[in-house]
Amino acid sequence: MNLLLPCQRCPRPKPPASAIRAGAVCAFAWLVFLAGCHDGKDEALARECINNLKLIESAKMFWALENQKSASDLPADADLFGPAKEVKEKPKCPKDGVYTLGTVGQKASCTEPGHVIDRVF
Predict the structure, then answer these.
(1) Please, which of 40, 57, 69, 94 could form a disulfide with 64 given CB 3.0 to 4.6 Å?
(2) What is the rounded distance in angstroms from the CA atom of residue 106 to the CA atom of residue 89?
């Protein structure tokens, strides 16, 4: 007689259905939470990028007024950013997008999708 084998007449205890449902609800809530965290981070990074674009736009306007430039003039990085300028160094997109200054009459832009000055949150 082997005492280590479970009794075949005694059924193995099953967890109550309420415990299974509670586990499923917790797993679903965790997935929803993780999805929400990801979207919030992307939105925060987009806002930071858009704020950088607005800073670039302000520097362009300041440069244009100070140097009597027209809407078709294109500033270089050295015209807008540097130790003697209002903006000490060129801002960088937090998601590694690339900024294009554009002419005075154009808005600065980013290569990252959704990072647009007109975007409203």
Answers:
(1) 69
(2) 21
Q: What is the pTM of this model?
A: 0.67
Structure tokens at 4: 């280590």
Instruction: Give me the amino acid identity at 28.
Output: F
What's the rounded Cα separation, in Å, for the pair 38 and 45?
Answer: 11
What gap in Å lies between CA 49 and CA 113, rounded to an integer?
Answer: 11
Token match 């992307």: residue? 42
In the beta sheet, which residues pair with residue 31? none
> Residues 51-76: pLDDT tens digits?
999 999 999 999 999 999 999 999 99
The pair of three-digit structure tokens given for residue 32, joined into one six-digit string: 């929803």
Q: Which helix (H) or strand (E) holds 5?
A: none
